[in-house]
Every structure is written in structure tokens, then in C-alpha cells.
Design a protein that fits this description.
about 140 residues, mainly alpha, 7 helices, elongated
Amino acid sequence: QQKEIQDTVKLLTTMRTVAGASRDYALLMEKGSELALADTTTFGQMDMAKFRRSNPIPSPEILRQFLANDLISRHVSSFSHQQLYLSFFDLEKVASTSDYGTYARLSDRLVKVIDSEVAYQEGEIDMKELRSKSSLE
């Protein structure tokens, strides 16, 4: 049982790394698109469309694979499990829109849910704190 909890924490930590990298990339692309738009003399609407096509938001599909893992299903608290799926659903909706800012905010929210669940799994916080730290409402 303890080994499975440790493995669950490892998976969550890896999932956090992926979500954090996606957030950082989206923030970088948001900044890049803002800078490009500010240069209206050389960067038009067609260029922005090309910029977004060339720099797509990362697919959250890898996160779906983490969520489908048996260890996650069995050991993550039901509260966090629900929050993770809601976060994934929101990321999936935004991924095709090239809305870098929204994707970054949703990824950051996912990171917070994961961080809270890891703290819960490691006994650092109780269920009440978990709910208050990672509630999406």
C-alpha cells in the first residue's frame, strides 16, 4: 500500500511537471504574440494567424493518459480526481483556440490541484485543507 502511494506521488509529480511546462510554454507564446501584435508596422493579422499555427498550444492528451493510470484512479482522493478531470476538460476545450493566456491560467490551476493532492498523499494536509486549496470554484 505504501509503495503504491509513493508511486502515485511520483505520477502526480510527473503530471505536475507536464502541466507546469505547458503553462510556461503558453505564457511564453502569449508574451510573444503580444510583442508581435505591438509591432503593427510589420506584423499583420495574417502573420498572427501564422504565428498561432506555428506555435500551437500543447495537447493535453498526455494528461489524459496520467488520469487513466490505475494508481491515480485508486489512490488519488475522489475530490482531487474530480478536480483533475474538470481541469483536463477545460484544457481540452481551450487547446484548439490558441488562447495562450487562458490555457496558461488553466494549467496553473491544474498545477495547484496536483500540488495539493501530493501534500494530501504525503500527510501534510487533511481533506479540509485539500478542498480549500484546490477547489476550482
